[in-house]
Amino acid sequence: MRNRKSNLTPLLTLPFVRVLHYARLLMTAGLACISTQVTAAAADERYAADRRRMVDEVAAMARDTARETGRAAFAERVLEALRKVERHRFVPGALASAAYANHPLPIGSGQTISQPYIVALSTDLIDPQPHHVVLEIGTGSGYQAAVLAEIVRQVYSIEIVEALGRESAQRLASLGYRNVEVRIGDGYRGWPEKAPFDGIVVTAAAPTIPQPLVEQLKPGGKMVIPVEAHFGQQQLLLVEKRADGTIARNVVLPVRFVPFTGPGARQEPGRR
Q1: Integer Cα distance of 191 and 183 in angstroms
Q2: What is the DSSP letter of 12?
Q3: Mean pLDDT of 105-116
Q4: What pTM, to 2 d.p., does this model score?
Q5: Which long-range contacts (CB under 8 A, 24 or more apart) does 242-247 make?
Q6: Mean per-residue pLDDT for 83-109?
Q7: In the predicted model, is pLDDT for residue 268 greater than 80?
Q8: Is 59 helix (H, G, I), strand (E, B) or coil?
Q9: Spatial strand order in the sheet of 197-202
Q10: pLDDT at 8
Q11: Is 97 part of the annotated catalytic residue set?
């Protein structure tokens, strides 16, 4: 028996098959996008929970060190800044899971991001106010600058390691910190063009208190700085400038920071 040609038009023509294929691809891409968004949202929530735990640890440590620091609790605006700043964005990707542990982490170029407790303490000690202009010496990854920027009107930050400084400036800008300006240079000399400052936070251990920084501090202003002590030790100092230009200094507690580098530090008396 001879086969007859069918007069029926195929239900699935070639163009329709292509449309169906593209529709499936779009559906797959859409599902992948939704999956990525869900994963990102879950990660953000996990980081937020880690951040809250970190702040609780910092607050507990403030109570434990009250005898040394004279501060049983940090100002709520300081703790709130720690809750807001996403520390995992300021550490290498491989260390993101450890970003909210209360200890320092390496950030490359021989530098570290400071322990959250020390960041909070240094910030609290200068009593930052919304109208203040603050100088930071040692930008590092930009985390301390970001915490300050959540509180004060303007932050000027100096970093001597060029690659680190440029990367931090880009990071801070991308995160929306328009009130932070980063400069590459020797922080020992400060930033006289932007002085005077209501507060100064130094994140590297100096051989002595740099006189240029004292001169750039406003009367009534405060500076927090780690300074070398005997037998390789370091002490965190709170320096307050009186109305007559003299300073009062108080030892807060022993610390461990990376050393100050640059020509200014090397030219200090007693240094080679």
Answers
A1: 9
A2: S
A3: 93
A4: 0.83
A5: 243/219, 244/219, 245/219, 247/209, 247/214
A6: 95
A7: no
A8: helix
A9: 180-184, 154-159, 133-137, 197-202, 217-228, 234-241, 247-255
A10: 47
A11: no
Which residue among the candidates 6, 97, 114, 141 is catalytic per the annotation? 114
- What integer pLDDT is reported at residue 260 of this predicted model? 86
**Strand pairing category for 247-255 and 234-241:** antiparallel
DSSP code, position 86: -
- Identify residue 37 by its one-letter amino acid code: Q
Average pLDDT for 118-137: 98
Q: So what's the pLDDT on residue 121?
A: 97
Task: Report d(CA 128, CA 139) in Å as an integer.
Answer: 18
- Alpha carbon distances (Å) from 119 to 24, 67, 126, 147: 51, 18, 11, 8
Indicate the CATH number for domain 38-266: 3.40.50.150
- Compute the mean pLDDT over every residue in the chain, rounded to the nearest whole number: 88
Query: Where do we find the tokens 């702040």?
Result: 55
- Residue with tokens 């020992």, as numbered in its chain: 188
Q: Where are the domains of the chain?
A: 38-266
Q: Output the CA torsion 227→229→233→239 (10° steps).
A: -30
